[in-house]
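User: Let's play a game. I give you a shape written as tokens, and you guess the letters that built it. Ready? Here's round one.
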């Protein structure tokens, strides 16, 4: 399954974290005189819903409704049989079955007498939701960066844990990788990552003739590179290492991927949390390297 085993470790992410995040959102609503904020969530775009409620869907779609004066409510396309599980791993107390999300949202707006609502990153709302919702109620764009300009301390701790997880496992396995069949090497890595708590994982390898790709049964050479993208409790990091030991080069062309936006791995962008990766030629082979970084007030630093 996409998410593996989802639990809520309240020692790692305490309930007060969500109280702090919701307070920031409600201050923004008050500043714009909006009664509620709607946050879209699906399998691939769950970052914002997770940030405010810890809700990370296995599949299907949902709308998190954050009223200015009341507790958040989830409009959910999932079957009611999973609602007890959702409540056990989120701050949510009320979940409304919503096979038709626009219809249910407009019903809530009518019941609450909301004539206008805020929508998180309105221009990124799927078209089949945008059209009926905005036809039924006035929608005001609330840019995510206005509320989430940088990761808070709880997010940053999870990003760091994920990055440490990747680096530690690569440090342990890379030296013994040369000569192994790529399937075996990738299997060793995956076992370590899954046991450490990785929820999603993409491991790609190459011997230098092409960019990293899924294992295909090749024996790894001394020039091999490996790319690991890992998700820990909704927080993605990425690290690319090579057996040649190349870590940086002034002639390398670097590429950026934003990890802190609505979608992970947004290409050619560098947000507060981002991946920078590059390649160089070494003895005729393509060698790849990269890591995850924090764009902090004092400059860029590796997580």
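Assistant: Ready! My guess for every position:
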């Amino acid at each position: 399954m996409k998410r593996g085993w989802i639990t809520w470790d309240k020692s790692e992410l305490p309930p007060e974290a969500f109280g702090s995040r919701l307070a920031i959102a409600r201050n923004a609503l008050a500043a714009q005189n909006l009664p509620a904020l709607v946050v879209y969530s699906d399998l691939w775009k769950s970052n914002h819903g997770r940030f405010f409620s810890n809700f990370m869907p296995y599949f299907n779609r949902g709308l998190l409704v954050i009223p200015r004066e009341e507790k958040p409510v989830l409009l959910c396309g999932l079957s009611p049989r999973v609602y007890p599980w959702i409540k056990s791993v989120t701050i949510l107390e009320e979940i409304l079955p919503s096979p038709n999300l626009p219809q249910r949202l407009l019903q809530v707006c009518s019941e609450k007498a909301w004539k206008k609502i805020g929508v998180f990153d309105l221009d990124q709302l799927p078209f089949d939701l945008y059209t009926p919702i905005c036809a039924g109620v006035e929608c005001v764009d609330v840019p995510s960066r206005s509320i989430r300009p940088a990761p808070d301390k709880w997010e940053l701790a999870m990003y760091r844990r994920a990055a440490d997880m990747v680096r530690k496992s690569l440090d342990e396995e890379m030296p013994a990788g040369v000569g192994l069949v790529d399937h075996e090497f990738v299997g060793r890595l995956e076992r370590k990552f899954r046991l450490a708590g990785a929820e999603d994982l993409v491991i790609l390898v190459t011997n230098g003739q092409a960019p990293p790709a899924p294992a295909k049964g090749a024996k790894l050479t001394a020039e091999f590179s490996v790319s690991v993208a890992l998700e820990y409790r909704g927080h993605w990091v990425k690290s690319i290492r090579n057996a040649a030991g190349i870590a940086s080069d002034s002639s390398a062309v670097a590429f950026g991927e934003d990890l802190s936006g609505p979608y992970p791995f947004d290409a050619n962008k560098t947000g507060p949390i981002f991946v920078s990766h590059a390649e160089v030629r070494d003895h005729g082979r393509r060698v790849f390297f990269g890591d995850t970084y924090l764009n902090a007030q004092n400059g860029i630093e590796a997580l």
